[in-house]
Amino acid sequence: MKQYARIFGYLGAYKGKVVLYFVFIILSILFSIVSMGMLMPFLQLIFTGKGMTNDSNNVVIQGINDLLANSLNKRGSVNTLAFICVLMISFIILKNFFLYLSYVVLNPLKNQIVNHLREDLYDKILRLPIGYFNEKRKGDLMSRIANDVGEVEGSVVGTLEGWIRDPLTIVVTLTVLFLISFQLTLFDLILIPVLGLVIGRITKSLKRHSEEVSRKNGESFSIIDETLGGLRVIKAFNIEKLLRHKYYTTSRELLDAKNKISYRRDMASPLSEVLGVLLFTVVLYYGGRLVLRGQLIEASAFLGFLGIFFNIINPAKALSTSFSNMRKGAAAIQRIEEVLNTPVTVDDNPNGIQLSSFKDRIEFRNVFFAYDDVVILDNINLVIEKGKTVALVGSSGAGKSTLADLVPRFHDVTSGEVLIDGVNIRDYSLESVRSQMSIVTQEPILFNDTIGNNIALGKQGATPEEIEEAAKIANAHPFILKKEGGYQSNTGDRGTRLSGGERQRLTIARAVLKNPPILILDEATSSLDTESERLVQDAINNMMQNRTSIVIAHRLSTIRHADEIIVLQKGKIVERGNHEQLLELGGFYKKLVEMQEVR
Which of the four, 23, 464, 567, 571, has the lowest number of CB atoms within 10 Å? Predict the structure, then answer.
């Protein structure tokens, strides 16, 4: 039950409702048993017109006898029969009334548990470091949020009442049966574990097959995500058949795994019913023999015993179904737990210092960074003074983006320190550090919302005038006005209704509106055409005024006026200086310039 600890943990927050559910369900069980128990005086009155004998001094039979005798004296046999019928109906109504109340309490509780689980999973994904997502397929994570949480909702939380109601029903019913006949109930207890053993054998493989279903679901989501994101490439290279075959193969493997689960799960219910009826028949034969020999309670009491015992069959059957569902849902919980238990290597400092303003410098002191034992940055020492522009250049994989990512703490250093104004960046609160920065990446990230809302992401509550002013600085205002809805125009999914240059200028406007003292520009113009690049570069130059800037660039023409250019190779600083100094040095930077014909 260890894998269900989180579910029970969520229940712990609603102790009052859980207790109320227990009260309602116990009352429902008791009224159900009492209504079935009324069969004994009913049958006794029909058969003999009098009460039952009580040679064994059974307290249950004695109580029924007292009730029956009192009613016979007051009402007569026919009216007593009617009285018993009214009691049975009343108890059945009360049973179902309390059962309904238990659902009223439990169903919102189940929905809350699933909601908590989904929110915790989404919150954890937001908190996980960037490096985590480099290893994971996006489709697999989407599958865990959608399919696995749905599986937990249907297979585990959906049968939550069965975890509580059915065992309680069995325990309370057995207690009453012991009071009626200890010998016969003991015989039942010997047979009942056989039912559980057979069902357990059938459902044993459900978890393994469920893991396969979850994995194939993740692969399916990944293929769909890659297809939607790469339709141009797919069509351009005529690889529709290849992708179709890949998706169909995964889809059919998913179908086979689901069918295997269905065969096993669906077998549990009819088999448990057959075993239940077999158990009931064995008890009927065994108890009937004892009654006929005069070795047990009389016939009417035995029939009442059977009526109450039949109450165990359906809960036992439902419990076996719940058990198989739990086995099936265990795989989904395990996949969710893998994400929830992933350590957050870059986490907020709850007692961190608030970085209210950037005053002096950013410093990298003896910084090493390794990922999966591969050294990405090797002994970096660098100071970026306030108001200066520092450019990072080098071949692909040299560590430029990783170095820049250390400033907003997308990663934490393996050893060494990153300091802002002389304080280790880890000693600040994470939110306050990032509030001092804006980032413009090579791929402009826009959300499916209006142009105005996309610009205002960095400053919630910005006025239309502030949004417009930021757009003007970013050279975005003219093209926005040409849109039919202006600033209320929708950008489409990932900004697909805009050109690349337009998307990039909106991200620059977003950075301008936030008005941070530190800017990080990660190859912000490398994917644009010449005209768009000029417009975006002009916007970047406007934005960089009076700010501290870290610029990553492949096109060296965009950084020749940087205060300092840092040349990285294999994670190490191999050259540093301004454009003219590095050209005079005649090293790696000069070779890069000559290749791009920059003078």
Answer: 464
Residue 12 · residue 109 · CB < 8 Å: no
Structure tokens at 405: 């990512």
CB 250 within 8 A of CB 216: yes
Distance CA(507)–CA(444), nearest Å, equals: 6
Do 336 and 350 fall within a single domain?
no
Judgement on whether residues 226 and 375 belong to the same structural domain of the protein: no
Residue 437, strand partner residues: 518
Structure tokens at 378: 């090797």
Instruction: Kindly list the strands in the beta sheet with 415-420, ordered across the sheet, starting from the edge strand earlier in the chain.
Output: 374-385, 361-371, 415-420, 423-424
Among the three residues 292, 312, 340, which one is the final residue of a domain in this structure? 340
Query: How many domains would you assign to the chain?
Result: 2
Token digits for 421?
Answer: 């104004």
Tokens found for residue 188? 């039942």
pLDDT band at 98 (very low <50, low <70, confident <90, very high): very high
State pLDDT tens for residues 343-367: 877 777 778 899 888 999 999 999 9
pTM: 0.71
Last residue of a domain, one of 306, 340, 374: 340
Which residues is 568 bridged to in the sheet? 394, 573
